[in-house]
# Entry
Amino acid sequence: MPDSLALLLPDEQATRELGALLARSLSGAGAYPEGGSGSGGFVSLLLQGGLGSGKTTLVRGFVAALPGAQQAEVSSPSFNLMNIYPTTPQVAHFDLYRSPGHAPEEFHDALDDRGLLVVAEWIENIPRQDWPEEALHLEWSSVPSGRALEIRALGKTACGLLESLAPSFNQWRKLNQWQKG
# Structure
């Protein structure tokens, strides 16, 4: 089963559209892990990339696509660590920039909450063993004509979700085939 896909996002609009597509998919029934310890509720989104790469822009598109978004003001929770948006389902948005070397307790608590969709920016700042078992890991890099994005599926449910989403990504395909991450 494929576990990785490379995309090219030419601008902020494409990044917001990808966020909306992911929100619709992750909030659906197919994004619930089939169990296991520490699997929490939904497949999580783990975002990695430098300053200005598009992480918060993707979260804005993600949140805007969910019911209740009109009550949410999306901003990077740099100083709060976490924002919870009053969407359905609720989104727990983490900024782990100031958490190098360890995952805060609130992050683990959110992962265990079956009612929260967890989105974490700066995931590279915490050890891999603290990452959720089921997640889509999005890693940005700059290219001359936009932003390159690699999406890796972590876990069986996430792999199935990424595979089902693949046809929706055709407009942003960087490569014509799946790649192993």
